[in-house]
Amino acid sequence: MINVPVMEEKGQARGDALLRIDGVGISFQGVKALEEVSFDVPRGGVTSVIGPNGAGKTTLFNCITGLYRSEGQISLAGRPLDRLASHDRVAAGISRTFQTPALLDDATVLDNVLLGAHARTAAGFWRCAARSPLARREERRSARRSGSRGPSRGAARPGRRRSPR
Ligand SMILES: Nc1ncnc2c1ncn2[C@@H]1O[C@H](COP(=O)(O)OP(=O)(O)OP(=O)(O)O)[C@@H](O)[C@H]1O
Ligand SMILES: [Mg+2]
Asked: Which of 52, 75, 92 is a domain's end point?
């Protein structure tokens, strides 16, 4: 595990544990993939989990994101996540990328990014389906935050080429 502090957030004490992993363990058919894993992820830094193939890194991320139910306790900013479903953990502030990225082949790069940003918007299914003013405002804000000036239609579309796996 490597912790690299990169920035200090205003009003946040450095070294304050944002994510706490406490005694996490999980077995698959009697094979212990993780046993008594404990560490803190401090605020305002980049923390890396390193280890050889099969060490349990992805399994740990699956426990943190709620894909697997594990022993021990995982808490975010003091709030236990253990009883929360994956989508509630996302709402609490957890997000992840996957070892094998799954992109929508027929969507633009920006639209794929906006899909990820959707979890941080408030408009919901019906307002998005109806393209309500709130939904469009949030989409423009997400696009700006992604570094774009607005959703691209046409020019950047990849056509029907499949993205590399
Ligand atoms: N769903 C599962 N069912 C059975 N065994 C599993 C399952 N998920 C993970 N494992 C086992 O848990 C162990 C840890 O695997 P994991 O994929 O977490 O390792 P990793 O550190 O991410 O490896 P890599 O560097 O290759 O990505 C392995 O022995 C793996 O076979
Ligand atoms: Mg892995």
From this structure: 92
